[in-house]
Design brief:
Layout lengths: L11 E7 L1 H6 L2 H15 L3 E6 L4 H13 L3 E7 L44 H4 L3 H14 L3 E5 L19 H11 L6 H9 L2 H11 L1 H24 L3 E7 L1 H7 L3 H5 L4 E5 L10 H14 L4 H12 L3 H8 L6 H16 L7 E7 L12 H10 L4 E5 L7 H13 L2
Parallel strand pairs: 1-2, 1-8, 2-3, 3-4, 4-5, 5-6, 6-7, 7-8
This protein binds zinc ion.
């Protein structure tokens, strides 16, 4: 039995990311102190740890601290994008015109800046990623972690630009699709734009007409992930998965049922405020903007997206005008995640609602106390994950989460 499995009904996960920037800003002692504060206050079940391989001693020290408090550590590993520099570069996904890179239609303007490049590898190429898989397992073992947490397991999202929502159109992927289905790979983006002109009705038609292509994308991601999972489980380690919210999952090729089968826990990213990739306001604003810029009338674009995502029209309207989503959306997305993750097997992965509580100048996200309390109230009966770096989560937020959990035990 894994640590903490039955200690309390609702679980907490925290994330800690340590790169050169953090090593410059904090001393090792400060990092460990901040971690210890969270371990004491929150008594989490999981720590998701991203740490550069140069800092092995610090990593082992962190794992030791967690072990003393019965906290499982999973080494946070980037799979399709932002891969470790030590791994060989794999071919990138291609849009329908065969291009690599970022799209020009409503791509996020922070794309390619900073550490996060968000250039996604082709899922066919990922099937030859033995080196990446081996490294993920070895790196976790080297620091004594209990698991591997897989992130960036998907196709590009709207933040990469509308053009890449139909990836991958490389010859390996299109041949594989032809072999499976006896038909040519469709231009999903053009079809999406055409059908979006018909609003909700168009979304239903689009979804049905391109079922095979959507399922193919989901299968490609799930296959790559299951190869990682097999190796990680084979080494006696646990598997965690970072997933986009269910409202976005179909658009990026993530099938909760398929993916959760091979996972011990999953973390849907239910960021209702974050203006960053995977953040729901940014992703949906850009998706609607991409369709509008491609000639779809604004309200039709919104209705099309409402039907595709299952998000209410009024909430999308607020986002179209530059606002964010209410915390209630995180709760409804969490219910959907649990429903879809339960899938068709008797194995049940733990599901953590990922919420963003960071306050840092590099992130265009500031969660004030009202926003935090709205999240905590909406998710009071759920496992939650405090994303995405405990170093930048203010202590008053940590204490508020700790208090709420105590009240509910
Ligand atoms: Zn491809």
């Amino acid at each position: 039995m894994y640590a903490n499995a039955a200690r309390k009904s609702k679980k907490i996960a925290i994330q800690l990311m340590i790169g050169p920037g953090q090593m410059e800003k904090f001393s090792e002692n400060e990092i460990v102190e901040r971690l210890d504060f969270s371990l004491e206050a929150l008594e989490p079940d999981e720590l998701i740890l991203s740490i550069h391989e140069d800092y092995g001693d610090l990593a082992r020290k962190i794992v030791e601290h967690c072990g003393g408090k019965n906290v499982n550590v999973s080494l946070w590993t980037m799979v399709f994008a932002d891969r470790a520099a030590s791994l060989s570069r794999l071919p990138l996904v291609r849009d329908f015109k065969g291009r690599e890179g970022y799209g020009a239609i409503a791509a996020w303007n922070g794309m390619g800046k900073g550490d996060e490049k968000f250039l996604f590898c082709c899922p066919s190429a990922m099937l030859d990623d033995d080196k990446g898989i081996l490294r993920a397992v070895e790196a976790a073992q080297e620091i004594g972690a209990q698991g591997v947490f897989l992130d960036r397991i998907r196709y590009p999202s709207p933040a990469n630009g509308l053009e890449y929502l139909g990836a991958c159109s490389c010859s390996a992927c299109t041949k594989a699709f032809y072999r499976d289905n006896g038909m040519d790979w469709p231009d999903l983006v053009r079809e999406m734009v055409n059908w979006a002109a018909y609003g909700r009705e168009g979304a239903v038609k689009f979804r049905n007409a391109f079922k095979l292509a959507r399922e193919f994308r989901a299968k490609m991601v799930a296959t790559a992930v299951s190869r990682y999972s097999e190796a990680v489980h084979g080494a006696g380690l646990r598997v965690g998965l970072d997933l986009l919210a269910p409202a976005l999952s179909d658009i990026v090729g993530q099938d909760y049922a398929l993916l959760s089968r091979n996972a011990d826990f999953i973390k849907p990213m239910l960021y209702c405020k974050a203006s960053a990739p995977a953040g729901l306001p940014l992703e949906f604003r850009l998706l609607m903007e991409g369709l509008s810029r491609s000639g779809v009338e604004t309200s039709r674009a919104r209705q099309f997206v409402a039907e595709l995502s299952g998000i209410e029209d009024e909430h999308l309207k607020a986002v179209q005008l530059g606002g964010s989503f209410p915390a209630g959306l995180a709760a409804s997305q969490m219910s959907r995640a649990k429903r879809e993750a339960d899938g068709r097997n008797d194995h049940r992965a733990d599901v953590y609602a990922g919420i963003e509580l960071v306050d840092h100048e590099d992130y265009a996200t500031k969660i004030d106390e009202a926003a935090r309390d709205a999240y905590l109230e909406a998710l009071s009966r759920e496992n939650i994950a405090l994303c995405w770096n405990i170093l930048y989560i203010p202590r008053n937020h940590i204490m508020a989460v700790a208090k709420l959990r105590k009240d509910f035990q």
